[in-house]
Amino acid sequence: MSNSPARPAAPSPDRRRFIKGGCALLASGTLAAQPQLWGQTQELQEKSRERAPAELVNKSTQAATQRGLLHLTRRQITAGGNRGAFGTSGYSCGVAVTSLAGLAMMCSGSSPGQGPYGKHIERCLDFVLSKVRQTGYIARNDSLANENMYGHGFAMLFLSEAYGMTQKTEIGEKLRRAVRLTVQCQNAQGGWRYQPVQVARADLSITVCQIMGLRAARDAGIHVPDEARAKCIEYVKKSQNSNGSFRYQMSGGHSTFAMTAAGVTSLYSAGIYDSPQVKKGLEHLIMHKPGGAGIGGHYFYGHYYAVQAMWHAGGQYWNQWYPAIRDELLGKQGNDGSWTGSSSPEYGTAMACIILQMPLNFLPVFSP
After folding, report:
1. What does the alpha-carbon distance between residue 1 and residue 75 come to, in Å, rounded to a whole number?
2. Which structural domain, as residue segments, surrounds residue 288?
3. Number of structural domains, the chain?
4. Around Cβ 335, how many Cβ atoms within 10 Å?
5. Is 260 a domain residue?
6. Is the dihedral of CA 220, 223, 226, 227 positive or negative?
7. Within-domain flag for 56
8. 48 falls in which pLDDT band (50, 70, 90)?
9. Which residue, among 165, 160, 164, has the nearest Cα to 99 in the 3D structure?
10. Is residue 149 part of a domain?
């Protein structure tokens, strides 16, 4: 990969397969002769008007993203025991923030050792690899970052993307170890909780982190048992309310924008593209389009998943959502290039950069 600025990539061909099929029908005249397909024709036309990445990621967005990524490079520690991390205490010194920052840099088109942020990604990678325990659990050995299965899930996702790019033996070995640990910790309901052990009651937030990590690992060629995938899909489906929102736990608990965004994205990531659960979830999410009323807590976590859900949905969902969250984020950026997150500026900045670069479509785990 060259060091030249990343150019927007075309959306996934799979995303357009339905459109191409409809265009062929239109060209042949077959569609006009089948009135029952008229509704599908309208859907095809709607999807075909989806705005191009080059139009969405405008110059202001490119500049803001570059300022954000440069802020992360300035914050990254370059020597000592925390080399590769983004702080010496709190969440910024943990595997979650380090992994998210690495992913944000990968979203620009750089990869480990290559591109403008190649050396920074390598530092992230070295740090995370050093935290993979013999059990497969990815976390610091101290209590500085309050690591839990959130960190493990984000780290598994980051290692999966790095392994897909490099095929390095060490990454593959440690990633397989992490995947085995994750599968072993899945409970009877199909979910996970904060600690790397089986528990009676899982929660959707932690569960989605593991689903995304497992999906990324599978994309990179790591074996993930079909049974584990089937169980987590059922867990997510059973966590949905009748109004389309998703709740924190299958047995009950609060329902939020963040949980709903995570639920919809996890179903898409598991290959569930056309289902009542996805449709109802999208309809619920679109009522909370950025620029309107607030979404409650967990702003960056919620929008990290929401932008993925709308990217998968495409069409007018995407056309409405991305410009709204883009403009909202551009208005929130600090003078130093950072965004203020709930746990640290490094967390908020990494999340914002991932969201803003979603149309570039560089990472398989985020691809429709």
Report:
1. 25
2. 239-332
3. 1
4. 6
5. yes
6. negative
7. no
8. low
9. 160
10. no
